[in-house]
Each structure stands twice: as structure tokens, then as C-alpha cells.
Amino acid sequence: xxxxxLVVLVTVAIAIGYxxxxxxxxxxxxxxxxxxxxxxxxxxxxxxxxxxPDKAVDAFVDSLDVNANTLETHLxxxxxxxxxxxxxxxxxxxxxxxxxPQLDLEHQHQAHLELARDFMAAGLLDRAEMLLKExxxxxxxxxxIAQRYLLxxxxxxxEWSDAVYVAEALAQSRFVKANPEKRQEMAQMIAHxxxxxxxxxxxxxxTGLAQKWLDKALLADKTSIRPSLLTGALENADGRHKxxxxxxxxxxxxxxxxxxxxxxxxxxxxxxADPVGGFNQVxxxxxxxxxTTPSTSAILFxxxxxxxxxxxxxxxxxxxxxxxxxxLRDHPSLAGLNKVIALQLPGLSGDVADDVESLxxxxxxxxxxxxxxxxxxxxxxxxxxxxxxxSCKRWDQMDRVKGIEAD
Length: 407
Ligand SMILES: [Zn+2]
Description:
The protein is mainly alpha-helical. It has helices at 2-27, 35-49, 53-63, 71-83, 87-98, 105-122, 125-138, 140-156, 160-171, 174-177, 180-203, 207-220, 225-237, 241-254, 259-273, 278-292, 296-309, 315-330, 334-344, 350-369; strands at residues 373-375, 381-382, 398-400. It is built from 20 helices and three strands. The chain has a three-stranded antiparallel β-sheet with strand order 2-1-3, with no helix packed on it. Helix 17 (296-309) runs antiparallel to helix 18 (315-330). The longest helix has 26 residues, at 2-27. Bound molecules: zinc ion. Zinc ion (ZN) binds at residues 375, 377-378, 380, 389, 391-392, 394, 397.
């Protein structure tokens, strides 16, 4: 499809070249039209007829003047080259444009923007960043789009302070302010940038700074689960368990499908806040949550906690089995079946035990192949929760996979 587009575009480009050439010849009949242009033009046609569109592009770039009539064709051809992965050709086309002294300021900015995108595609991020900053400073009409590309660079380079700076400027633009969907998308991104800064601060044991970033993240997006998860962990670490329960239950209520992500810190908070009754409280909490939003991960987490308790309270073993069986009747899953087998196996012996053990091996093989999280935007799936999808690079798109093989 792109090859057809390329042939059409080159044909149009060469037709323009031919037309302009003819016009020049008419106005200056004797010697004004340079022979070299004609020669290159015919070379281009020849390449096209010989199905060598790449060489035809080079011939076109060499032969076609840059002026108001041909500029869009140059830009379109450059974009097409970049889309086809021919970044060096795209760079050549855009640099060729910029080398023309007659290019007005508006078109210079346009060519700078395209060249920056070529550099991004080539992985030359420093050079792209420089050009984009120039466009942002000098071109009001292209500022928003240049900011968006610059934001992509800062995210790829994990330069979170710079990303916050650009994203907050972008969020103030008229285009974003007028579009509720874009506004929400920017708010989500900004919250994640602050969370990334908070995680960096936590790694450096600067919890004060981390909390400052997390407050800003929640200010940017009240519904984001990630700052609440991190805040819950910080509150637990500082011994403020009731505060942790408050933050985490609110986060789970706002994001029921990610309740299992809140559970480890929530469990710690409940048990630490009330060593006597906390365990049963968190158990009741999980059962009430999964009644409306089933989650095999959540029930398996609680089953594991019950089994740990069974070491000192033997009745917890039976309770674990009952809770799991009750849940699996309505929500069968491979992971649940695997756990049931693990619970039953110690009580079996002889051939039956051997058979059940073989069955468990098969179930575990199937479990190893399962992918736990999936991006709702592009379909990328993996076993790890990525806040930013590694494939389509959008934030907050990955969710737990539901179904028998998954959650
Ligand atoms: Zn994706």
C-alpha cells in the first residue's frame, strides 16, 4: 500500500517538476532552464519506470525546486520516507528544504518539526530535542505539537522533571483545555510523572520528598491508583496504618479491577492497626469486594494468608479451602484449580496422589503460558503491570486479563 502511495507521490512530484520546467522554458526560451534539472528529472522518470522508487525520490529531491508550489510535496515525501523506515532519506529531504535560503519562517519551522521527528525515529534524541525547543520558542501555531513530541522524548529518556514541566505547559494550552478527553489524558500522565519522581525519591530513602511528589500526583489526578498505592506503602512504613487503610480502600474503590494490587499493603495495614481483629476485618473486606468485582488474584492472596495463619490456628486451613471452593463454583479459573489441588494433595496417597500430582503439573504448565495483564488500547499482553504500555506508550491502559486462564 505504501509503495503505491510512494509511486503516486513521486509521479506527482515529477509532474510538478516537469510542469515548472516547461513554464521556465517558455518564459526564458533560450538557455535559462538548466539542462541538469531536465536530465535529473528524466532520470527520475526512468527510475520510476524501472520500479526503483527510492532512486526516483533522490532524483526528485535533486531536481525539484523548493517554492510555494512544491513545498507540501517535499514535506509529504519526507513523511512517507520516514513512515517506510527510510529515515536517512527523510532527513536528506528535510535538510535539503532547510538549505534553501528562500524558505520563509513558517515553512522553516515546519521543516524543523519534521526533521526533529526524523531524528526521533533515528534515535538521535538530543538533536530532536534541540529542534523541538526551537519550534516551541519560535512558532505559536506549531508549539502544541512540538511540545507533544518533546514530551515523548522526555518520557522515553525517563526525564520526569522535564516531562512534568512540558506536560503542565501543554495542559494549559487552549486545545487541551477545550477537550475533556485530552484534559483527562494529560492529568493522568502528570500524575504518573510525579509518581515516577516519588519512586526515585523512595529509592534514595527521601520519604519526605516522595510524599511531596505523591501529593502533587493526587492533586493532578484524584482517581489515579498509583499515588495511593505508594502513599499507602509510605504510611505503613511510618506506622500510620489507619491512614494507609483509608488511602488504599479509597484507591481500590475507585479502581476495583486493580484491587489485588492494593491488597498486600492493605493486608499489612489492617493487621498492624489491629493485631487481634485486623485479620478477620481484611478477610471480610476482600469477600465483600469480590462479591461485586470477582478477582482470583485477591482470593488467592487471602487463601495464602489463611494458610500461613493455619500454622498457629489449624482451623484456618479448612476456612481457606471453603472460601476458595465457594469462589471457584461461580468463578472457575486455572489458578484457582491449581490452588485447590495444592490444598488437597497432602491428604492423598498412593496412585491417586500420583495422578493428582501429574494433573497439577499440567495445570502449572498452562499457568506458565498465561499472560496476566493486557493493554486495552493496543492488545499488548504480559505478566507484569506496566503503568505505561511498552508497546503503544499510553498510560493506564493495562488491566488484569479476565477469564478461566487468567484472573
Ligand atoms: Zn498498548
